[in-house]
Amino acid sequence: MTNDTDFTLDVLYGAKPPAAASLYGALGQSQNPRPGESLYKSFKETGIKAEGLAVDVGCRDAAFACNVVKFFKCRVIGIDPVDNNLRNAQAKVKQQGVVGQLDLLRGALPLLPLKGESCDAIWCSDVMTYAPDLRECLDECARVLKPGGGMMLYQTLAGESMTPAESEWLFTRMGGVPRNHDQAYFEGAIKESRFEIQKKDVISSEFREYFEETGNRMTSLQLLRMARMLRKRDALIAESGPVRYEAELAECYWGVWQMMGKLCPVVYVLKKPA
Ligand SMILES: C[S@@+](CC[C@H](N)C(=O)[O-])C[C@H]1O[C@@H](n2cnc3c(N)ncnc32)[C@H](O)[C@@H]1O
Questions:
Q1: HEC profile for 176-242?
Q2: CA distance 65 to 56
Q3: What is the pTM of this model?
Q4: Residue of the nearest CA to atom 16 in ligand 1?
Q5: Which of 9, 14, 114, 162 could form a disulfide with 262 if both were Cys (CB 3.0 to 4.6 A apart)?
Q6: pLDDT digits 0-9 by tens, 98-111
Q7: Per residue in 133-169, pLDDT tens?
Q8: Cα end-to-end distance, the chain, whole Å
Q9: Which residues pair with 111 in a beta bridge?
Q10: For the chain, domain boundaries
């Protein structure tokens, strides 16, 4: 803990320890963040087997779903409510050479177009943001899973420093439900659902750091875009309209706030009891 009186001019402007022994030295080095690909390791913990059937709920362009087919040699059904996403997904399925192993269906939580107990594992990444009723959506996922099946649930939660006003501002602009990002509410819904939590893995800023360190400067680009958007607000709104402007600004905050701990991605591996 610090006291306000600790931050004296002597401390702030005094001679600093050599870089090798200081905070600055440590910050110049990678803290070994994991890549986004670690999601596949978590997915393996659902128990998915070759020839099994996995479902990607909210598959968008099926980029993850194509990899699930390739890595696990299983069949996949990708589900999404947006026609444009399904068109892009269809193109990706062809391009990735997984036709016949990956089917696409139009649908949305809380009503999946699948029979009960028909699949072995679920991949659900950054989708519960949109769940109108979280508990109902989790139970729908449990309904379509076979007993003993598992779900890899990746969800970006509000970090401790995010205020209620920031949460309301960000998540509504992303078309989401603000309270679904409250950790206590989110985990409460899981505990009340038909799932058991098998693993919880806090990702925090790791995937974003990994991107920055390996050359995909997505988040620093978002920071730059934020600055430009804020400075040219009126002109950009006049050009693109307030909805496009606000949605794009929120998208930039989404990345930058993950770096700042205002947003905290977490992976849960959930099990439906056998
Ligand atoms: C943030 S994107 C995540 C896409 C992908 N899962 C990923 O991690 O890259 C959210 C996706 O969820 C879809 N979506 C939104 N509401 C949904 C719902 N109620 N049920 C299923 N998917 C939904 C959107 O169309 C979009 O493709």
A1: CCHHHHCHHHHHHHHHHCCCEEEEEEECCCHHHHHHHHCCCCHHHHHHHHHHHHHHCHHHHHHHHCH
A2: 6
A3: 0.95
A4: 130
A5: 162
A6: 999 999 999 999 99
A7: 999 999 999 999 999 999 999 999 999 999 999 999 9
A8: 47
A9: 108
A10: 38-160+175-206+260-271
For residue 108, give the DSSP letter: B
Flag whether pLDDT at 265 surpasses 80: yes
79 and 112 Cβ atoms separated by less than 8 Å: yes
Nearest alpha carbon, ligand 1 atom 22: 58
**Domain 38-160+175-206+260-271 in CATH 3.40.50.150:** yes
Indicate which residue's Cα is closest to atom 17 of ligand 1. 108
How sure is the predictor about 19, in pLDDT bands with cuts at 50, 70 and 90? low
Pairing relationship of beta strands 145-158 and 196-202 according to DSSP bridges: unpaired
Burial class of residue 101, CB neighbours in 10 A (0-12, 13-18, 19+): middle
Residues with CB under 6 A from ligand 1: 57-60, 64, 80-82, 85, 108-109, 125-127, 130
Ligand 1 centre from 126 Cα, in Å? 7
Give helix 206-213 / helix 242-260 axis angle, nearest 10°: 90
**Among the atoms of ligand 1, which is closest to the Cα of residue 60?**
27
Closest C-alpha to ligand 1, atom 8: 125
How far does residue 82's CA lie from ligand 1's centre (Å)?
9
Residue of the CA atom closest to atom 12 of ligand 1:
58
Give me ligand 1 centre to Cα 23, in Å: 40
Q: Which of 106, 110, 161 is nearest to 138 (CA)?
A: 110
Distance between CA atoms of residues 209 and 218, nearest Å: 10
pLDDT over threshold 80, residue 24: no
Model pLDDT, residue 188: 98
With CA atoms as reference, report the closest residue to 112 among 151, 73, 61, 67: 151
